[in-house]
Amino acid sequence: MNKSVTGCIVTYNNIKTIEKAVRTVLECTKCEFTLYVVDNGSTDGTVEFIKKNFPQVVLIETGSNIGFGAGHNYILDRLDSEYHAIINPDVIIKDDIISNMARFLDENEDVGMLSPEIRFPDGRMQILGKKIPQPQYLIASRLRGDEPSKLLREYAMMDEDMSSPVEIQNATGCFMFIRTSLFKQLGGFDKRYFMYFEDCDLTRSVNKVSKVLYYPYATVYHEWGRESKKNMKLKFIQLNSMLKYYSKWGLSSK
Q1: Largest alpha-carbon pair distance within the chain?
Q2: Helix residue ranges, H only, the chain
Q3: How many structural domains compose the chain?
Q4: How far apart are the first and last CA of the chain?
Q5: Is 26 within the bounds of a domain?
Q6: Which is nearest to 128 in space by CA: 87, 95, 168?
Q7: Residue 146 falls inside a structural domain
Q8: Residue 92: predicted pLDDT
C-alpha cells in the first residue's frame, strides 16, 4: 500500500488530550501520511503547544468555534489523498491502524468508509450505536445503567457476530476512515450540524452510494467523557442536532 493518507483533528480547548492524540497518530502511522489540526479558536494554549511540539503537523486556525463538522470541512479543498481519517482529539492509537485500514480499502473497492473497534483507555469496549439512531435507541442510550438494556444491545449490535468486518448503519465520529474522493463527493459533513449527529448523517449518506463497515481489526482508544450528559448547553446543542437529523431523514430505520 503506497497510496497517501491524510488525517484531521479538530480542536477546541483540548490541551489536556491533544498531545497523546497527535503523538500516537504520528508515531504509529507508517504509510505516507499528513496530519492536519484545525483549531476552532482555542484559548487554552492548544495552538501554541502544537506549534512548539509538532512542527510536522499542518496547523490551520479558523479563528472561532465553527463546530465539529465545519472544522473538518475547512480543509476539504486541501485534501489530495486517497484516504482520509477523521480523528477526535481525545483518542489514542497503539499500532499502525491507519495503514491497516488503507490496505483493506485497497482490497475492497465497494467499501467507502470504515469504523474501527472503539475501547476505553482501560481496554473496556465502548457500547456505541451501529444502527440508525431511532428515538427508542437514543432513549435507551441516555438511560443506560451498569448493564445494557435489550434496546441498547440491539442498537450496538452486541448480540451479533462482530468478529469480522460487517456492514453497519451508524458509525461514531470519534474515528472514521473514508475514501477522500467520497468525502469530497458528499461535500464533507452536512454544515447544518454544529456538533452531534453529523457522524450519523455522514454514515447514512455514505451508505446511499457505497458501504460502511465496522472493522474490528483496528482498535482506537477513546476517553469519551459524554459531556452532553453533564453540560446543559451541550444538551441543547445535541437536542437541536437531533431535530435537524430527523427533519432531514425522518424516523425511518432504512
Answers
A1: 49
A2: 18-28, 46-53, 68-73, 97-107, 135-142, 150-155, 180-185, 198-209, 232-249
A3: 1
A4: 35
A5: yes
A6: 168
A7: no
A8: 97
> What pTM does this model have?
0.94
**Cell 485500514 maps to which residue?**
101
* Integer Cα distance of 182 and 171 in angstroms: 16
pLDDT in tens, 131-140: 999 999 999 9
Residue 111: inside a domain: yes
Instruction: Tell me which residue of 177, 247, 190, 251 sits closest to 219, measured CA to CA.
Output: 177
Please state, in angstroms and as integers, the Cα–Cα distance from residue 98 to each residue in 30, 78, 214, 216, following that order: 8, 20, 14, 13
User: What CATH number does residue 221 fall under?
Assistant: 3.90.550.10
CA 211/CA 109 separation, integer angstroms: 10
Coil vs helix vs strand at 192 = coil
Residue 69 lies in a domain: yes
Residue 131 CB neighbour total at 10 angstroms = 14
Q: Which residue has the higher pLDDT, 252 or 222?
A: 222
To the nearest whole percent, how much of the chain has pLDDT over 70? 96
| pLDDT over 80 (residue 206) | yes
Q: Which three cell numbers stand for residue 181?
A: 474522493
C-alpha cell at 192: 447544518
Query: Cα separation of 235 and 142, whole Å?
Result: 11
User: Facing residues of 60 across strands?
Assistant: 38
Q: Which long-range contacts (CB under 8 A, 24 or more apart) does 126-130 make?
A: 126/222, 126/224, 127/152, 127/156, 127/158, 128/156, 128/172, 129/155, 129/156, 129/170, 129/172, 130/155, 130/156, 130/157, 130/168, 130/169, 130/170, 130/171, 130/214
Structural domain containing residue 201: 5-123+163-227
